[in-house]
Structure formats: C-alpha cells, structure tokens
Amino acid sequence: MTFRHSIIAIVLTSLVGCAANDSANFATQASDNRTQTIEKLIKTVNESTVSHAGVQHTTNANVLLTDLVCVPALNTYLEAALNHSPSLQQSIIALKIAYAQQGVTSASRLPSVSAGFDAQNAEDSDESYSADVTVSWELDIWQKLADSSAAATKDIAATQASLDAATNLLAANIMRGWLEISVNQQLLDIEQRRLAILAQNETLVLERYQAGLGSLEELDNAKTSTASTRATVVQYQESVAQSKRSLMLLAGQWQPESEMPALDVVSEFPHVINPLDAVPVQNMAGRPDLQQAFFNIEAEALRTDAAYKAMLPSFSLSASLTDIAQTPSEALLTNPLWSVLGQMSAPLFQGGELKSQAEIAQLTTEQSFWAYQETLLTAVNEVENTIGQESALTLQQSHLDDAFLSAQRSIVSYQQKYRQGLVDILDLLTVQQQAFDIEAQLTNTTYQRLLNRIELGLALGLGVSA
Questions:
Q1: How far apart are CA 194 and CA 188, in angstroms?
Q2: What sign for the dihedral angle of Cα 67, 71, 75, 81?
Q3: Is the pTM higher than 0.85?
Q4: What is the mean pLDDT of residues 257-279?
C-alpha cells in the first residue's frame, strides 16, 4: 500500500511539473512576443521618421505625459483631479482591497492558534470545566500555499497597473479638456469676427439700398448671413461654458476652489510637444494595460500550479494544551496535558473535482495569454495610427495655412471690386465666408493634431509622476 501511494505521489508530482512548465511558457512566450513586436515597431517608426524628416528623434526616457502640455495653470487642475476624482479614488480603493486579499492568502502559510473554554453541568454529577489551546500548521512542502500567496502578489501588481492606467487617462482627459476650452474659445472668436464683418456689410448694403444703388435681395442676403452667424455665436458661447464645466467635473469638483486659477484660457493653443521628439518607442513596454495583462498571466500561472499541487498529499502538525478541573480558575491551564499530532492526508476520490479545477486554471492561464496578445496588438495599432495621424495632420495644417493666406488676399481684392461696383454683395459674402470657414477648419485641424499628440503619449506608455 505504501509503495502504491508513493507511485501515485510521483505521478502527481510529474503532472504538477508539466503544468508548471506549460504555465511558465505562456509568460515567457508573452514576453518574447512583446520584445519582438516592439523591435519591429521601432524599426518601422525609425524608417518612417527618416523618410519624413531626414533625421531620427532624440530619446529621453524621463519625459512624462504631463510634460507634453506646457501650461503652469493646468498643473493645479491636474493635482485637483488626482486628489478628488471619484473614478480614480475607486481605483485606489481597489488596490487597497488587493493588498487586503493578499494578506488573507498569505495568512494560510502561518500557524493558526485557537483557544477554547467549556463548562459542563449535568444532573447527579459535579461541575467540570475544561480549557484548551491548540496550535496547527500546514507544512507547505509542495509550495502550494506559496504559489497562492505569490499569485495574490501578482494581483496587486496588476491592480497597481490598472490604477496607473486610470491615472494616465485622467491626466490625458484633463489636458484634452483644457484644449477643448481653447478650441471652442478660438472658434467663438472667429464667429464673433465673422459677425462683425457681416454686420458692417449689412450696414453698407442698407446704405446702398437707401441710396437706390442696391436691391432688396442683397439686403435680405446680408441680413440672413448676419442672423445665422449670431445663432452660431450663441452656440459656441455655450460650448465654451460646457467645456469649462466638463473640466471641473474631471477635477472632481463642482466649482473651482479659491486657490485654483480661473478658467480664462487664452485664445491660443498651448505648446504641445511631439512625444516622438522626446521619448523612445521602447517606452511602450511600460504601458499599464500591457503590464496588467502580463501580471494576469503570471498570477493565473501560479494559481494553475497551486491547483495541480492540491492533488498531492498534505502534511500538517498540531499541538494542544488541555486542562480539566472542577473550578474555572483551576481549568485555566494550571496543570495542562499536552499532545502533538502529525497528520498526512491525500485526496483519493472526489469525482474528478480537483482535476477539473486544475484544467480550468490551466485554461484560464491560456485565456490570459490571448488577452495579453489582444492588448499588445491594440497597443501597436494605436502607436501606428497616432504616428500616421501626426504626419497627415501636419500636411493638412500646412495646406490650410496656404489656403487661409490665399483667402485673405481674395477678401481684400473683392472688397475693392465691390466698392467699384464690379462684383455684387453675394460674391463678397462668399469669399468672406470661405475665409472664415478655412480659419475655423485650420483651428480644428490644429486642435486635432494636439489631441493626437496626447493620444500618442498614452500609446507610448508615458506616465504621470507619483
């Protein structure tokens, strides 16, 4: 019988070893895939950079996500958001829960101590009292409890990565909110200047009509353009107000505190650096979502090892002190009896429950591996898209600059021709509207380019200082 149990133990140990190797392979394969993918991405980005700019970008791994936007007043709102954002506070509490859970798991590796006191009084017998103190400890020979504790530690690391991702996203949203206020304010300024020009045109047309030099249709067209632009001005005024309220919401506040600067964003975009000019693409390996997915693989691999080791025999020791007396005071271990027990137990038949649990754990590890692969592909796609957008938006911005200069020259030419009676008011209104439309399009394109740089910083894995 002893020989048979030894054979069973050897077979189970071999199964555990195979499971451990398979689980470790998932983590190793994920790490290798990440390294190879990032190396290919670096090569692609460098070739693209050389072909577009002729030089490669410098590297500085110390650049943070919050360094992309150079606005001192913005730091106050970033600090307020990191301290008061309800969503971020929930992520912080989730991390504390993970620490507490790790404490629960680690406690199983330590001896447990229990004490009891019992009083018995039966008919036709004397009262008796008993007290006992028992110490028990499961010997972790197969490192099953150690694997479970290590898995909980990996859960902490994954939760910390999730918190980092939430922090980075919150900081990015604060910067986006600041840019949104700026673009809406600039678009409002454009519409107000458009309205001023249209109002002047309406006055001029009215004077010409009263002098008998213009038609009623020209006057109606001028009034239509003016009224339509007034409606647009009202719309942008509310957009600016909503953008400011949204930024306050991100900061976790309803109204700004007294020490916070007012949201009087200037009608110019802040300088937003291109992350590729300051950081290496290798930083993408520091993306919190990639880290979280990798820690999940390691945690599930450790749980798989523990699940297979649950089929092995377990060993435990227990020691107790017991005392029985006629009075409570005498029963408090004044003359106790001690006993020590060593125990070995092994699961023989549980209907395949342990094996099924081990298989589930193994499949969960594989599932985590493919989740990591999906996250890695998404990360690479985000980097490629944002780099491509930077190039495309730069070209668009250059073309719109040329178009805006041409439109401004056309306005001057048509104004002179209109005074000379060579063109009608519709022609003048058309070129004026075209110039303002191009200016608004240029503003929006610049805004999208700056937003894309923040997206690129997130994609590269830039973080926020602790």
A1: 10
A2: negative
A3: no
A4: 71
